[in-house]
Design a protein that fits this description.
Blueprint lengths: L1 E9 L5 E7 L8 H5 L10 H72 L3 H21 L2 E3 L4 E2 L5 E7 L8 E7 L2 E3 L2 E4 L1 E6 L1
Parallel strand pairs: 5-9
Antiparallel strand pairs: 1-2, 3-7, 4-6, 6-9, 7-8
Helix pairs in contact: 2-3
C-alpha cells in the first residue's frame, strides 16, 4: 500500500502533483512459495539427500574392499608360512635321505681302517675300493653324473689347467684329465680340470 504526498510542484494545468512514497509491505502468506521453493527447515534438500546416499554407498564399498584386502593379506601370510614349513621339511628329508645313503659308506670306511690297523694290505686295498664304489653309488642316486672329458675342449664343462703340444692330436683336444668334473640335474657342480693340446 502506498501513500500519496502533496508537493509544491504543479502539473501542466497548474494542479499540485502527488508523489507516492513506498512503505514497507508485509508479504502475504503465499509470497514465500512464489519467491522460490525451498525445503522445510531441518530437512535436507534432494541434492543433499542424493549426496548423502552416494557417500554412504562409497563408504560401504570401502569397508567391503578393506575387508577383502585384509582377508587376502591373511591368506597370503598363511600361505607363506606353510610354504616355508614345507620347504624346511623337504630340506630335512633330503638331508636324512643323503645321510641314510652315506651310512654304509661310513661302515665300509670303518672296516677298512680296522684292516689297516691289522696291517692286512690286501684287505685295506679292497676296503678302499669298496668305499669308493659305495660312495659313488650313493652320490649317483642323488643325481651325480660325471662330465665326459673325451674329445674337444668345452669351456662350459671343462677347465684347462695346462696346454701341451701333442703329436697327432688336434689343437683344442682334451688329452688328459687331472680332476674329474661332475654335474647334478644338468647343473655343473665342478668342471673337469684337464690338459689341452696346443
Amino acid at each position: 500500500m502506498t501513500q500519496r504526498k502533496a508537493t509544491n510542484e504543479t502539473g501542466p494545468r497548474g494542479d499540485p502533483l502527488e508523489v507516492s512514497t513506498p512503505q514497507e509491505q508485509v508479504g502475504a502468506p503465499g509470497d514465500e512459495e512464489s519467491a522460490g521453493a525451498s525445503a522445510p527447515l531441518g530437512e535436507p534438500s534432494p541434492v543433499e539427500a542424493d549426496l548423502e546416499a552416494r557417500l554412504a554407498e562409497a563408504e560401504a564399498k570401502r569397508d567391503e574392499y578393506l575387508e577383502l584386502a585384509q582377508r587376502v593379506q591373511a591368506d597370503f601370510e598363511n600361505y607363506r608360512k606353510r610354504a616355508l614349513r614345507d620347504q624346511e621339511r623337504l630340506v630335512t628329508h633330503a638331508h636324512e635321505r643323503l645321510v641314510h645313503e652315506l651310512l654304509p659308506v661310513l661302515d665300509d670306511l670303518e672296516r677298512t681302517l680296522e684292516a689297516a690297523d691289522r696291517h692286512e694290505e690286501a684287505a685295506l686295498v679292497d676296503g678302499v675300493r669298496l668305499v669308493e664304489r659305495s660312495l659313488r653309488k650313493a652320490l649317483e642316486k642323488e643325481g651325480l653324473v660325471e662330465i665326459e672329458a673325451n674329445g674337444a675342449f668345452d669351456p662350459h664343462v671343462h677347465e684347462a689347467l695346462l696346454t701341451q703340444p701333442r703329436e697327432g692330436v688336434e689343437p683344442g683336444t682334451v688329452v688328459e684329465v687331472l680332476q674329474r668334473g661332475y654335474r647334478v640335474g644338468g647343473r655343473v657342480i665342478r668342471p673337469a680340470r684337464v690338459i689341452v693340446a696346443e
